[in-house]
Amino acid sequence: MARLVIKQRKSSKVKVVHVIRHGEAQHNVNEKFLLKHDTKLTKRGQRQAKSLHRLLPKLKPQAAVTSAVLRALQTTRGIGFCGPTVVVPEAREVGGWPANSPIESREALSNEMEAKFGRYDWSLVATGPGRRSSHWESTRQIKDRARRLSRWLERRSEESLLLVSHGEFLQHLTGDDYMDNCEVRSYSLNRGKWQRLRRVKCGV
Q1: Is the dihedral of CA 23, 25, 31, 33 positive or negative?
Q2: What is the pTM of this model?
Q3: Nearest CA to 71 among 57, 97, 92, 56?
Q4: φ, ψ at 60 (rounded to 5°)
Q5: Structural contact between residues 18 and 161, judged by C-beta atoms closer than 8 angstroms
Q6: Which positions are tagged coiled coil (predicted)?
Q7: What is the β-pairing status of strands 184-190 and 193-200?
Q8: In the chain, where are the structural domains located?
């Protein structure tokens, strides 16, 4: 899997990350979809994602970061953020279920993906493996991945970011409890420490 390379200088200002768990997906309502790749948002999940567009003026994100798992990509698209969007394999869900695998890098770089998701920054996906991985991670591996992502987010130049990811991984990332589908939690991020500022439950 692609490793995050830190190039930006760390900002001296407070970093705020607005964390969003993806909308309701097929495997959330029927466990058989855990055995399938590229589970999609349900109709309800699509409505949940679209409902978050109204929050953008309050959150004022300067960029968005999304997992390379299809349901997170669909959620990011549904939110309707128009600024720079980076697809980060490190933000994927934990566990070896096929449903938790990122899309294949060959597919990610195809013209079809640009048609679906626009001009996202896929450069981190491009440096990853060509085939999707379904291996189970150890707790140590998950925590190491969470630390790498925290450092990368903190050292970006933006002061306000959206992060669309997954329930179990976000617990490891933030140290907080499990999130509902399309719940939004805003955190300050400083020296790898996440402090929750506020939360917004999805009303859909």
Answers
A1: negative
A2: 0.90
A3: 92
A4: 50, 55
A5: yes
A6: none
A7: antiparallel
A8: 15-200
Mean predicted confidence (pLDDT) in 52-56: 97
Which parts are annotated binding residues? Answer: 21-28, 71
> 15-200 belongs to which homologous superfamily?
Phosphoglycerate mutase-like (3.40.50.1240)
Average per-residue pLDDT in the chain? Answer: 89
For the record, the structure tokens of 112 come out as: 């079809």
Q: Is the pLDDT of residue 109 over 80?
A: no
Kindly report, residue by residue over 9-32, the tens digit of the pLDDT. 444 578 999 999 999 999 999 999
d(CA 180, CA 184): 9
Binding site residues for substrate, as ranges?
Answer: 21-28, 71
Give the per-residue pLDDT at 34. 95
Q: What are the angstrom distances between the C-alpha of 118 and each of 109, 126, 162, 200?
A: 11, 16, 17, 27
Higher-confidence residue of 204 and 65: namely 65
| pLDDT on residue 6 | 43
The answer to whether 160 and 60 have CB atoms below 8 angstroms apart is yes
The answer to whether the CB of 14 falls within 8 A of the CB of 158 is no
